Amino acid sequence: MLMQGNTAFENVEATSKLSCDQPLASVFQMSATETVEAGEAICWEGDAAKHLFQIVEGVVRLHRIIGEGRRVITAFQFAGDVVGAFLQGDLLFTAEAVTDCKIRRVSRKTFHDEVSRSDALRPAYINLLCKETAAAHDQMVLLSKKNAEERLCSFILKLALRSESQLKKGLLRLPMNRQDIADYLGLTIETVSRTISKLAAKNIVIPEGRHDLRIVSQSRLVQLSGNSDDFSEKTCHRGSVH
Amino acid sequence: MLMQGNTAFENVEATSKLSCDQPLASVFQMSATETVEAGEAICWEGDAAKHLFQIVEGVVRLHRIIGEGRRVITAFQFAGDVVGAFLQGDLLFTAEAVTDCKIRRVSRKTFHDEVSRSDALRPAYINLLCKETAAAHDQMVLLSKKNAEERLCSFILKLALRSESQLKKGLLRLPMNRQDIADYLGLTIETVSRTISKLAAKNIVIPEGRHDLRIVSQSRLVQLSGNSDDFSEKTCHRGSVH
DNA sequence: CGAGTTATTGACGAGAGTCAAACAACGTGG
DNA sequence: CCACGTTGTTTGACTCTCGTCAATAACTCG
């Protein structure tokens, strides 16, 4: 498995997220960091959820398999994120490293003890759970009602917004491969590819290698993402997409 | 707006759920019950989430609208369920009564005060949040990878399982109309209708009026729901679906 | 019973999936 | 440093499921 690029990238954000945006980080602070190579699994669907993880560095995908090899990626998690917060009994997903990762782990028991002891941590934990549910609902909307182009635009935007800092002159890194994107967006790899090509033809993004995207027009991405409240413009587009 | 059938039905379960399965019910106990007629809204997407609700009786749908009148139903909620638990700031959905409902409401402040005061309530609240997230993930899988038939079978099964008690000789009540089902499953009303007809042709279910379904073969529903781990049989089906 | 709503069925088309081939990126070894 | 093989991606041709539009049928309730 090869390293998919500059992890120094993620590091920048990791540092800030770990300290500020994520009070729960303190729970993981004393755990040793473990290294996980790209492609390796961190835990498996169906196993008892004995640990929670925090991603210190790198990108992780959470997925479920349903019969005959259909894979659904339910989330990508980035540096600073906590994996497994909402689990009770068994794991509902397999977590795998998309890039080389550094993670910390704590047992579920420790985590819950710490959280229920601390008045500062408890709201942070609740907050995390709420955010996760909200994100899941957004994804349901995407999967339920958006076409391929809207899905891709929404996805690119989400990535772009969460990494504004490292977005140097509109260059966005896509750490995951096309299959991962497809399984996350409920599409096939071919449709993802075609749709990116279509966006490129419209000069909205320019692919640079497999893992980078130059964002030419963020505003057009917003228009095409299907989230716009202003749909006077949108309606026109839909009429003339082909 | 018309009454869509016997609310006494839901009552049976309400009573048991309110007392046993749902410790959070105690928070709502002292609030007066309000009546909401079928079709009426309980709260609106975008408003500040000032209250949480508990459904005492009836069925509620939660939905979001995205541009040009596309509606996504993110969940149906039944007697005993708590609505709005995972909200932080603004409401992310509109809640509407599917049938005539009785609900209780408490302010978010009261709710959170009560919950953080009680060692019994806190785990129940966490548990609720986790369950909601897990449910959202299941729905993501459905929307992401299942075809129309699998979606319908999954839906019918879920309804059937959650109301086993009132499932008299395989008669299942569908309190919602076809449009609601369509918007929940990410399909159109026509596809829902056709798929039910197809299941009827296979003698798996028999529609009786618009709001009742006689379940002839629950096991075939399971097979066709796309959740089966045993997919030797499944694979054959997929090969010969048409 | 009859008007209005909701559901079903049919004909057709479009968007995404499938299968297969060409192509580009990346790492390796000469 | 460049040819090569591997892997991942793009593109093309075709199919199929589901969506759209429209007509008919079944409920529901005054």
TrEMBL record, chains A, B:
SMART domains: cNMP, HTH_CRP. One of its GO terms (molecular function) is DNA-binding transcription factor activity. Pfam families: cNMP_binding, HTH_Crp_2. Residues 36-132 form the Cyclic nucleotide-binding domain. It comes from Rhizobium altiplani. This is Crp/Fnr family transcriptional regulator. PANTHER family: CRP FAMILY TRANSCRIPTIONAL REGULATORY PROTEIN, FUMARATE AND NITRATE REDUCTION REGULATORY PROTEIN. Keywords: DNA-binding, Transcription, Transcription regulation. The lineage of its organism: Bacteria, Pseudomonadati, Pseudomonadota, Alphaproteobacteria, Hyphomicrobiales. Residues 146-219 form the HTH crp-type domain. The keyword Cytoplasm does not apply. It comes from the Bacteria. One of its GO terms (cellular component) is cytosol. CDD domains: CAP_ED, HTH_CRP.
